[in-house]
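[[Sequence with tokens]]
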Amino acid sequence: MLGLLVPVLALALAYFALLDGWYLVRVPCAVLRARLLEPRVRDLLAEQRYGGCVLPSDLDLLLHMNNARYLREADVARAAHLARCGVLEALRALGARAVLAASCARYRRSLRLLEPFEVEPPELPEDLQHWIAYNEASSQLLRAESGLSDVAKDQ
């Protein structure tokens, strides 16, 4: 029995150390929690919150949450949001997947080990609204140059 336990523990340690195992566990757990334990939300743009806690694997050398982890937590919250709104089910029925086209982070303060936090949508400041408008204009230009805008209109 002990001979089997050591390789299993070594494999689990390698999984979590090399593949960011907490992320690979947390996303499915967040989706299940959203589907089974939280009320359904029909409005895709309705404000929702997703709570978390800074884990040891989230820390950088300065012992605060690594900048990339903030975006990972936003990704977990996005998956939960899409599950609560029924978007993930609709995508699965279509054989499609959700793809994040862009992200932007503004870091307000450090988060320390085991500190709780919430991911929530703030009011969009004017500079962010300009950034969104720029991205939309850029996308329209690229679609026009590639001929995709004509295809979308035909469908």
Notes: The chain has a mean pLDDT of 86. The longest helix spans residues 126-146. The CA atoms of residues 60 and 66 lie 5 Å apart.
